[in-house]
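> @MW can you paste both from yesterday?
MW: sure, first one:
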Amino acid sequence: MFSQDITVLRVNNCINIMSSRMDLMDLARHLRQEALFVQSEKQNLQSLNEKVMKTAENLYHLSWIARQQRQTLDNLLLSHTDSNLASCYHRSNVVETANFIDSYKQLGINDCSYSEFLQLLRENPKVLASCLNYGEKIDLSTMHQIVNIIMAAIYGNCILPEDEVHALVLLKELMSLQLAVSDNPRRLLRHGSCAFSRFYKIFSECLFSAKIFLTAALHEPIMNLLMADDLFLDIDPSKAAVRFHPQERLRHFGKEGTPEYAASLQNYRNWTIKKLVNITNRFIEEIRNNLYCFPQSLSWLARQMYNILMKAKRVEVREVGAMCADLVFAFFICPAIVDPESYGITDIPISYIARFNLMQVAQILQVLAMSKWEEIDRKLMDLYGKFEKDCMSSLLDLILEGSTTDSPADLVNQFQDLNRSAILITESELHSLVTFLKTVEAETSDPILKKTLYTMVNHLPTPQINGPSMPNGNLVREISTSSDNQPMTPSTKRSFLGKVGRKSSKLPSNMMLNSDNHADEANGLPEVDATVAAKTQLEDVLVVPILGIDFDCPGMLTEDKVLAMESQKKKTSLENGNLLEEGDALSVGPEIIEKRTRFSLSQDQEDKQVCNQYLVMTSVRIFLEKHDRYLQLFVRSFQELVVADEKAIKVEEFLNYLFNYVQNDPMWQTASVMQIEHAKAVIEHSVMSRIYTFALHPNGDGDVLRDKVLHEHMQKLSQVITPNHKDLRIPKIYHSECPWPSAQAELVNINAYKTPRDKIQCVLRCCNTIMNLLSMASNKSVPAADDLMPVLVYVLIKANPPHLLSTVQYVNTFYEKQLEGEEAYWWTQFASGVEFIKNMDYS
């Protein structure tokens, strides 16, 4: 019995051992699988990290290219002549092919020295601010270019939050060094030539959050203004009648000097005031509604300006408030209202009448913003008295709310992802920057600044540029015809890097946002003809690495390192909190926090597209100014025609004349094929906007009344219409997306577009939107024309765009022969829908 028990025990032990071995084998297999899984995940993380780094590298390149194109555009706006158009087009196109190379290939053994120098400069924004301030005192001619180099190269156009923080520190220091010590800081700010004004302008243009706010707040009211741009809306009553041609003036107001003339003029003034008040109130409402996305960085700067100037006690409180209003409205919001195309707010070319009306709105907004501190002209109180008191100054109060002691680092996300790994700069820019700092170091009497700069630049080699001196570091150079393989010498032509200035559309004299005086910079622009341009290429862009940057792959850090980073993050946050209050402006420690980028490649590609589009629009504006006499003759002859076919032929002939002139004009010879095609579209829009009222309503008041009858009929239908209306009977499966607001939005703005082609595109986008929404609602079937038509009719009734019948007639007259394919199909559906609505009843 005992032996049996032992046997059983041994058997059980063997079973347990075998079971344990099986468990161990299962555990080993699971561990092996987990190890393989972890290794696979690590490889995926590494691959994704490499893609992120590659995308970030492309983002830096695109940002650099977009900034150079913006500076090229600003050159053209400064000169506002056609003599530089060929050069600007060449520079804009050649920068697209920029060659980015590792800096050691060009700098050789000095690569590490320059890398350390640029990194020190980037991490010490207060030093840069002191240098910019002193550079202005000794009147260096390269100041404008240096400001551009600092923003584009040192701070990388602020595409990363850490660059934005450095730029904010620099701007605050410039406030203390320039505005706080000036006897008339507002005049200094308004003049626009001080380092703070220059840097703030570029900073607000680069800031992504600023673009979001401007688009959200201004797009809808600007589109609303563009839909009614047939008459000038003058603020000044003395200029109202002058805008009309003598014959038009006689028809509208009667004979000058008669009681009838005075009464008609007063009625027109009352109509103008009512129109301006309605339009401006819409701007105010949209700005107020979107104030939640106002850039925090700009709010912080406004608060800092108020705090610094109040502590300085050199100007009155009302002057301080007026300067803060200038910073927000005159230097940020109003320029975007006047030139919405350059900010990407709209892609519609602005007619000269619409531009003037936008300028009037911008002026009204600025006067209202200043009304708390400056008295309004009494003769204009019939206009400004219609607005609510403090309607704009209250918005400024909301912007100024908040702490003035917070650090700029608190304004951005503190997430760890990307930080800057390299600085993009050309060799000529690098040499210009070093020369500037050495000049300041030699001339300054500040011992701390002198010692700091000596430490930075003493070990750098003296810039050696063969040939004549090149103070502005031109990016474009001539191609060498020799077989020498040595690096090419930069050209002696002046740079197009440093020419950021006012837009070509000037605001009235009492609006100061474009009052900066850069005429001397514009006069120095080089003229490059097509033959010279063909022999030039872009200077290589050096990719200078930032030393000491640790590129650990996210998700693969050790626990100790993660804890150490969190500790360092808290420590750095505390240091940054005290950073801006320290008296020593020259001892700024390195920024260690890594922050997450908020941008994408598509945004910088859009910026490039906006620059190219606005360059073409500006070029067309200059081109048409040269042909203004012919344009006026065309408008007068068009008004004399009666038959629709004759009008269409007249328009086609004149457009072909202008298109042929563009093809043979030397100023367009360096433009690309896409730029030429875009120029033709802009020319067509400009010409059609001149004759739009006469072409849209060829029968005058008769057409207007006809459109009004249909508009009122559709208003009544809109009150009773439902998807189940007996004339529509839209299937219930499609009701989930009702009332299809995105499709309505495309039709609401149809009158903002002046060319038949653009109106067709509005209809096309509306129909495509409806078809996409119907497809999403019904996964089992593809919607057909029978499904589209009732929904299109419903959308038309709800959108109810004005001048609908005249719009159909306008497109049929001037574009019917060019309709084909998809455009013809959708336009037929749209026109049929309009005809169907005319016969609908209200039951």
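MW: second:
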Amino acid sequence: MGYKILLVEDEPGLREIIADYFSAQADGCTLDTAADGRQALEKLDGNPYDLILLDVMLPELDGFTLCRSIRRSSDVPVVFLTARGSEEDTLQGYGLGADDYLTKPFSLPVLYAKVLALIRRDKGLVTSERITAGPLSLDPRSGYAWAGERLLDLPPKEFALLRLLLENPGRLLTRETLLLRVWGYDFDGNDRVVDNHIKNLRRTLGEYANCIKTVIRAGYRLETMK
């Protein structure tokens, strides 16, 4: 495969952990590293990368400024990896053109899966059977889901709920139906578990949370934004 990735991270220990994990995978990604923003710009000059992993709090040149500079001349996928997890910082990252924004600590397997998915999508290599309704979509085969262009990190139950909603846009799905389809016949709990998972799903959807409408005393319906 031979994808080439640039990791811009000033913490040596984390650079080494990510580099070791990526090099141990079977997909053959090559990971270059830079310890600060200026060094990253030097590496980007004349070197094509398939994706950039970018910290925010960097010496010399911070990650937000670096991302802005990258976007002036390139559409290469950019993923922020940062301890700055406030809503304001996250929205700023996406506003600058980031493709994803992960807060530390993060899961290395999830990071790697996101990286491969973004690269494949960018190169048009994704062969999928996407289920799409408005800005929301998912691919049952790969297990990936998106809100707009943002790749979502969904636990299995929330992925299953989103799939049911996407397969039935505009249709009322009762709590009983969702409970039966997602948790199964032998679930021995309260149907309010559905409400809790819908709440978590909405939080993950962010600006698209309102696509999932509550039907009082009944259930939920997916209504895509116009």
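> thanks! The chain has a mean pLDDT of 87.
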